[in-house]
């Protein structure tokens, strides 16, 4: 789909469809009013007959409107005249679904004129692009009949009022498209089943990714188990030892700024399947565990978008990847292993594996002398209990970094919510026999926070934030599939710090 902006007269357009808003009660927007005048009161006559009250989410599609050159007018009920951010997002998602059901290819939207509290036109355009691209996402690589649904919608133009809006709008198109492309990559990787998407597959994707962008822009390095052993990555190795597919530690480096500029490091959990290991999951909890590499997929998506926008920064992705399998050689509860940092860990529950592979990857990340490290992980089921599907869990050892991420979440709509890392929670990880344990010996609850505390013990050398996306990286309820979160949040963060 193509996106662009132009300053347009609603009555004189040749588009297949023009979208204009009506708010409650029966109030025409500026563009709707112009169409009404050009059609000699056609819209007011419809409103008078009670055809559209302006109620949120109600649509009315008109054809062959007198005095109008466009083929169709889609009247969209926006509800209140000043919309909230979430109502606007909801509205453009509904509009996107509606457009995919009617035979239009070229659409002009005047929803850019709708007032959204505290948000400018760039924001409205970016939200619209993300909604449209999401509405056309399908994953059918594994369907035998490739009757891919062809969408008729090919071109979306957003109305801008003047030069300043045009500049904001063009920038929003460019950024929206790049972020949508990143999200698509994240979803595509995440949706691939674990019998195909194993650590070697991710490593191959990383190598191809680097090749595709060119050596002087992106470089890729893959560490094998032998090298992990030499580095002392006992935690990562303890997770992979029950699996027959080898673990990989993937590093992708994007150089967008001078070498002297300290990089942002993104560390993504890449468990390509999580059975729980010897602390095996019950069957209903195991379904969905192909998505335990969504953090890794997010790293790919963010790097893709950042590179497409040629962001002037240095960005490094670190992906520890392996399977968590039961087996004759897999880790037993109460085994004690030594991390790369030197801390010894008693593994009381082999299903708390994400924190183990991340801990070694976080220690490894010290070598990049990062400005900040952000890890992204489907880490705890409890995050869903705490926050439902709306906000990712955020924990950090740096208030400024946390604030920036929260702000980026609020701005982009891909929100996060901060949880504490207080000393009291750290206490829970004391072990009788090792330096720490990977889960509390006696449960205190707060599993999302305790997991964050575990990671915090390995991130003392740099500003660090942890995003638990167990609740946001995949769709909630009966809807399946990856969401592409938190690519948008992280892109907003990167754009904000430039
Ligand atoms: N990958 C899971 C977390 C998860 C659960 C992600 C549900 C998405 C949906 C993680 O490795 C795990 O198993 N966590 C345990 C931790 C527990 C053993 C302390 C959990 O959440 O139950
Ligand atoms: Mn697990
Ligand atoms: Zn897991």
TrEMBL record:
<dbReference type="InterPro" id="IPR011356">
    <property type="entry name" value="Leucine_aapep/pepB"/>
</dbReference>
<feature type="binding site">
    <location>
        <position position="292"/>
    </location>
    <ligand>
        <name>Mn(2+) 2</name>
    </ligand>
</feature>
<feature type="binding site">
    <location>
        <position position="269"/>
    </location>
    <ligand>
        <name>Mn(2+) 2</name>
    </ligand>
</feature>
<comment type="function">
    <text>Presumably involved in the processing and regular turnover of intracellular proteins. Catalyzes the removal of unsubstituted N-terminal amino acids from various peptides.</text>
</comment>
<comment type="similarity">
    <text>Belongs to the peptidase M17 family.</text>
</comment>
<feature type="binding site">
    <location>
        <position position="353"/>
    </location>
    <ligand>
        <name>Mn(2+) 1</name>
    </ligand>
</feature>
<keyword id="KW-0645">Protease</keyword>
<dbReference type="GO" id="GO:0006508">
    <property type="term" value="P:proteolysis"/>
</dbReference>
<dbReference type="InterPro" id="IPR008283">
    <property type="entry name" value="Peptidase_M17_N"/>
</dbReference>
<feature type="domain" description="Cytosol aminopeptidase">
    <location>
        <begin position="349"/>
        <end position="356"/>
    </location>
</feature>
<keyword id="KW-0031">Aminopeptidase</keyword>
<feature type="binding site">
    <location>
        <position position="351"/>
    </location>
    <ligand>
        <name>Mn(2+) 1</name>
    </ligand>
</feature>
<keyword id="KW-0479">Metal-binding</keyword>
<feature type="binding site">
    <location>
        <position position="353"/>
    </location>
    <ligand>
        <name>Mn(2+) 2</name>
    </ligand>
</feature>
<dbReference type="InterPro" id="IPR043472">
    <property type="entry name" value="Macro_dom-like"/>
</dbReference>
<dbReference type="GO" id="GO:0005737">
    <property type="term" value="C:cytoplasm"/>
</dbReference>
<feature type="active site">
    <location>
        <position position="281"/>
    </location>
</feature>
<dbReference type="GO" id="GO:0070006">
    <property type="term" value="F:metalloaminopeptidase activity"/>
</dbReference>
<protein>
    <recommendedName>
        <fullName>Probable cytosol aminopeptidase</fullName>
        <ecNumber>3.4.11.1</ecNumber>
        <ecNumber>3.4.11.10</ecNumber>
    </recommendedName>
</protein>
<feature type="binding site">
    <location>
        <position position="274"/>
    </location>
    <ligand>
        <name>Mn(2+) 1</name>
    </ligand>
</feature>
<feature type="active site">
    <location>
        <position position="355"/>
    </location>
</feature>
<feature type="binding site">
    <location>
        <position position="274"/>
    </location>
    <ligand>
        <name>Mn(2+) 2</name>
    </ligand>
</feature>
<keyword id="KW-0378">Hydrolase</keyword>
<keyword id="KW-0464">Manganese</keyword>
<dbReference type="InterPro" id="IPR000819">
    <property type="entry name" value="Peptidase_M17_C"/>
</dbReference>
<dbReference type="Pfam" id="PF00883">
    <property type="entry name" value="Peptidase_M17"/>
</dbReference>
<dbReference type="GO" id="GO:0030145">
    <property type="term" value="F:manganese ion binding"/>
</dbReference>
<keyword id="KW-0963">Cytoplasm</keyword>
<dbReference type="InterPro" id="IPR023042">
    <property type="entry name" value="Peptidase_M17_leu_NH2_pept"/>
</dbReference>
<dbReference type="Pfam" id="PF02789">
    <property type="entry name" value="Peptidase_M17_N"/>
</dbReference>
């Amino acid at each position: 789909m193509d996106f662009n902006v132009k300053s347009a007269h609603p009555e004189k357009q040749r588009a297949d469809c023009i979208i204009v808003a009506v708010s409650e009660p029966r109030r025409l927007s500026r563009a709707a009013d112009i169409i009404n005048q050009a059609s000699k009161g056609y819209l007011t006559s419809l409103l008078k007959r009670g055809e559209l009250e302006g109620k949120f989410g109600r649509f009315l599609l008109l054809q062959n409107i007198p005095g109008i050159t466009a083929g169709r007018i889609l009247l969209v009920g926006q509800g209140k005249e000043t919309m909230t951010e979430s109502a606007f997002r909801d509205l453009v998602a509904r509009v996107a679904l509606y457009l995919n059901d009617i035979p239009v290819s070229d659409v002009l939207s005047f929803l850019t004129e709708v007032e959204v509290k505290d948000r400018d036109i760039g924001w409205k355009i970016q939200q619209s692009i993300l909604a449209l691209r999401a509405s056309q996402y399908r994953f059918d690589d594994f369907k035998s009949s490739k009757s891919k649904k062809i969408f008729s919608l090919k071109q979306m133009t957003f109305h801008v009022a003047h030069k300043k809006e045009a500049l904001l709008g063009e920038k929003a198109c460019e950024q929206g498209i790049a972020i949508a492309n990143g999200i698509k990559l994240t979803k595509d990787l995440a949706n691939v089943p674990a019998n195909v998407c194993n650590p070697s597959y991710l490593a191959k994707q990383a190598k191809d990714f680097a090749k595709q962008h060119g050596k002087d822009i992106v470089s890729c390095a893959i560490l094998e188990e032998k090298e992990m052993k030499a580095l002392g990555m006992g935690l990562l190795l303890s997770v992979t030892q029950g699996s027959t597919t080898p673990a990989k530690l993937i590093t992708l480096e994007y150089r967008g700024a001078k070498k002297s500029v300290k990089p942002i490091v993104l560390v993504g959990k890449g468990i390509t399947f999580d059975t729980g290991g010897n602390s095996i999951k019950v069957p209903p909890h195991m379904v969905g565990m192909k998505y335990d590499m969504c953090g890794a997929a997010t790293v790919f998506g963010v790097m893709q978008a950042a590179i497409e926008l040629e962001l002037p920064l240095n960005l490094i992705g670190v992906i520890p990847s392996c399977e968590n399998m039961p087996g004759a050689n897999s880790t037993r509860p109460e085994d004690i292993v030594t991390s790369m940092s030197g801390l010894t860990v008693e593994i009381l529950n082999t299903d708390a594996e994400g924190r183990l592979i991340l801990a070694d990857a976080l220690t490894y990340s010290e070598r990049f002398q990062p400005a900040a490290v952000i890890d992204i992980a489907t880490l705890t089921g409890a995050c869903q209990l705490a926050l439902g599907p709306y906000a990712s869990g955020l924990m950090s050892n740096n208030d400024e970094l946390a604030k920036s991420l929260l702000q980026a979440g609020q701005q982009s709509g891909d929100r996060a919510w901060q949880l504490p890392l207080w000393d009291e929670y750290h206490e829970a990880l004391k072990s009788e026999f090792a330096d720490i344990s990977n889960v509390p010996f006696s449960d205190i609850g707060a599993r999302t926070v305790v997991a964050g505390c575990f990671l915090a013990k390995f991130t003392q050398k740099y500003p660090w934030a942890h995003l638990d996306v167990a609740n946001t990286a995949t769709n909630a309820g009966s809807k399946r599939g990856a969401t592409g979160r938190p690519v948008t949040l992280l892109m907003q963060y990167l754009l904000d710090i430039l």
